[in-house]
Amino acid sequence: MTNWLAGMRTTADRLYDTDLIGRMIFFASRTTNQSIPSGESASSAMQWNVVDLDVLGGWDPAQPSRWTCPRAGWWNFQGAVAFNASSSGSVRECCWYVNGGLVGLGRSRPINTGSIANSYLTVDARSLPRLMAVGDYVELVPVHNSSDPNPLPTATGSASPYMTVTYCGPA
Fold first, then answer.
1. Which among 166, 170, 169, 168 has a CA at the least distance from the CA of 24?
2. pTM: predicted TM-score of the whole model, two decimal places
3. Beta-carbon count within 10 A of 6 CB
4. Is a pLDDT exceeding 70 seen at residue 2?
5. Do 152 and 110 touch, CB atoms closer than 8 A?
6. Which of 7, 38, 57, 95 is 20 to 30 Å from the Cα of 108, by its Cα?
7. Contact, 140 vs 161, CB < 8 A?
């Protein structure tokens, strides 16, 4: 995809690309518990079991934690993770990983206190704009340091974890 330049002809592909700008392309959630071990690792990425929207086919059930970029450009990622009740530990957060590694600006650590309430706790990931190439993949990785229980399950119901992807435009 290229930016529109003076003198370019209108084509179906260019109109379709323009129509995608600002549109949510992917929406997934986790409706069952997922056990998350203490610490931070890409292997703990959320594995989505409900995909309500996948306009460009970036999700593959064989790799349920990944959304793979189908076209180069700017994308925006949003999401949240809810952990089940545990008063153990002091950290609850989630991070964005691209191609298996932590992204600069991708960390969100709003909960870092000496006392965490013994009820489910939701942490939002940072809204992250990111230039992606075709084939790059993104994952939402929950992090905690609870020792009881460990692993700590994610919450379900109205607190279920989710992830969205919105197309922002060409590079």
1. 166
2. 0.87
3. 4
4. no
5. no
6. 57
7. yes
